[in-house]
Amino acid sequence: MLKKLTDEQQEKLLVTAVEEFGSKGPERAAVSEIARRSGISVGVIYKYYRNKEALFDACLARSTDMLKAMIGEAVDREDTLAEACEKLIRTCISFARRNPHYIQMYHAITHEPGEKAAYYAETIEKYTAMIYTGIIRKAQEEGAVRRDIDPAYLALFFDNLLMMLHFDAGCRYYNERRKFYLGEAEDDEKMTEQLVLFIKGAFGITDSVSSGSGPVAEGTGSAQEREV
Amino acid sequence: MLKKLTDEQQEKLLVTAVEEFGSKGPERAAVSEIARRSGISVGVIYKYYRNKEALFDACLARSTDMLKAMIGEAVDREDTLAEACEKLIRTCISFARRNPHYIQMYHAITHEPGEKAAYYAETIEKYTAMIYTGIIRKAQEEGAVRRDIDPAYLALFFDNLLMMLHFDAGCRYYNERRKFYLGEAEDDEKMTEQLVLFIKGAFGITDSVSSGSGPVAEGTGSAQEREV
Amino acid sequence: MLKKLTDEQQEKLLVTAVEEFGSKGPERAAVSEIARRSGISVGVIYKYYRNKEALFDACLARSTDMLKAMIGEAVDREDTLAEACEKLIRTCISFARRNPHYIQMYHAITHEPGEKAAYYAETIEKYTAMIYTGIIRKAQEEGAVRRDIDPAYLALFFDNLLMMLHFDAGCRYYNERRKFYLGEAEDDEKMTEQLVLFIKGAFGITDSVSSGSGPVAEGTGSAQEREV
Amino acid sequence: MLKKLTDEQQEKLLVTAVEEFGSKGPERAAVSEIARRSGISVGVIYKYYRNKEALFDACLARSTDMLKAMIGEAVDREDTLAEACEKLIRTCISFARRNPHYIQMYHAITHEPGEKAAYYAETIEKYTAMIYTGIIRKAQEEGAVRRDIDPAYLALFFDNLLMMLHFDAGCRYYNERRKFYLGEAEDDEKMTEQLVLFIKGAFGITDSVSSGSGPVAEGTGSAQEREV
DNA sequence: AATGAATGAGGTTTCATTCAT
DNA sequence: TATGAATGAAACCTCATTCAT
User: Which domains does chain A carry?
Assistant: First the structure.
């Protein structure tokens, strides 16, 4: 019998679909175009995926799996929060540079106005919320981070900055927007460094884990140690 | 442009179109539905706007004008940066709550993958970049804000947080996402307060503008040494 | 504005659709072909009819309305059953000759294997069942028709013969089939005459309304009066 | 024809195909589903049958063979026509109850609008026409049946009633239709009895074959004078 | 000029048929 | 040879855009 789609072909299909969905959005992406570009027939797509939406969901799952894997690898329970932040920032930028289409998929779901928004959000945000909130709470308990901000909010703001970092690197609009702030040049190293400073300030992080006193004092006192 | 449509009718058309584009997305919004709901015939819409995209662009211009006006009103050259931050945050949340469709329009353009991205970005980001960078640079010069971060980056990160604030309040996906971090309840006041704390920390701002000792003075004093 | 489809065009559409559905069946008939042949666009069909099925149902309603009208006109409460039979037979044949596509529509619904069968049947059979059963029951009460057969069964058998008469005249297969029984020639007059004889015999009809005795006796006794 | 499929497998294939074609109609029946349900691969089906239509034709041949066998068994040259009628009616109902799919196949061919109609009709109607006309002509010659109706017409009307009997028992639409005449209950015995009475009346048959007086003798005696 | 019905290209999806293994 | 996955034509249906009135 005819060999099933090789893993390579299935890979090609998903990669192509991610590119189409990511770059055009779920509505404008055409199944027939995905078929044409991936070199397989329309029919076979519908053998593997019930309909266009199922194909999109598979692309999404793939994208969010990659994102989660990326984040999972970047996070090491042994790291200080400062280390974790810097690693995450570096990893996010690097991932987005190498995989802009996954970032575009991620952005595509944020555009969902309907009922699927909750389902989409769950595929990735539940995970990041848990991870980041956990790390931050622990750091607060250890006194490494200011305590006058709810860890949930800290995690949200932190993820907000990481999402934007992703979009800056992976989405056309954000890339154009960045230029109005930073000019034409793309200096990922400087971006990393500056964002680390920004976030450490926001978190009230001291690189050395000072013992001791109340959160506010630490939070502000630690500003001196933010020196680069 | 033809002048048979009264200003009121044009207003109605744009408001309706913004609602449709915002709530359904640019693809799912139907010109005929906009015509029906606005009480203006399809033919007239096409007299005023070359095609659906031109109508969308007009909606976008309107949305970004509203955003710019909102920001312009919130910014007062006499304010301290801390005051400006808090005012902007409050205004953003309030605006997004009252005008979710404008925020959705704003989000829609961030999804633009093609050449129009630069044009879209220019309609709003150029303005915010200029405003925020100006304020921050001035604050740095006055010693009110840390100087070890480039004002352009500070402005970008600040705007990142404000954009996400908008989307949280106006877009379905971000709203669902927020729940994974903060739970079901929506407490705009707490959000404001927490984000103000976060940003102040990031900016190295202290509330007291008093001279003399204490963390603020130290914080700003050291900022000068951090000079880039 | 563009004039709505004229009555003439709507008529053309339905006539064409009846032809397509009747000759090809609901599955093989193509909306695009109906559009092409009726000289109107696909889009306008979907303006007038929600989907293909709704168009089919409209064709069916038209066909069954015609059939019902035809039957209604043929039935006259003043007629004897014998007169009614002959009139109905003549009318059926004549109708089927002039409107084969309506007969084909009628036949098409008899082919429905699914849940719609009951709905389809109701559109026409409920009416004929009521009419025929009523007429026959009345004739039985008057002693003009044998009473040893339930009027409902008499009506069913009678309608069976009329349906087949329709199909003989309107459907290709039945027409071919008829040739195996009757040869190539089509003699509607003879068909009428022979079927009238057949049915009168089956009904035990006496043209003169004899008074009196039991149904069985009448039924067989009347055979003498069946003379042509 | 290839011979790798065992007879049993071929049987299974045809039985399954008849079920699919019969229950879903020729259009809605899917070759892949027939393959799946019969446990025979699609490829093999296409080795044995040029295309879907050829498979359908094979199913049809099988169905009409079954019908012919059924009729052949029911007909006994020694029977009186009255006996033959009753036997045929009983057999038809019983066959249709046990083999609805064959009846549905039979009905399916009546829907054929094209050139194949003649071919289809030949596969079954030629046979029944010959059988019924023969029996009836013989009965007329023997004086057992009225002679004022052409035996060919008598045979056609008789077969019309039998076809409808088949469809009543085997096809959804006709089953629904029957309810409008006879109500929900299905009483095959009463149907048989009533139809026998109806047909005997139509044929001018009397049960007693005794010579002498009484309605029967009159009935047949007069038949001779009705000579066409 | 304004209307909104008509147009028809283009999208999704199915399934008869083919053919590489 | 038998398999059943792959193919791709063709069907339904939508909606941006046009244009007769």
Answer: 1-50 (1.10.10.60), 70-227 (1.10.357)
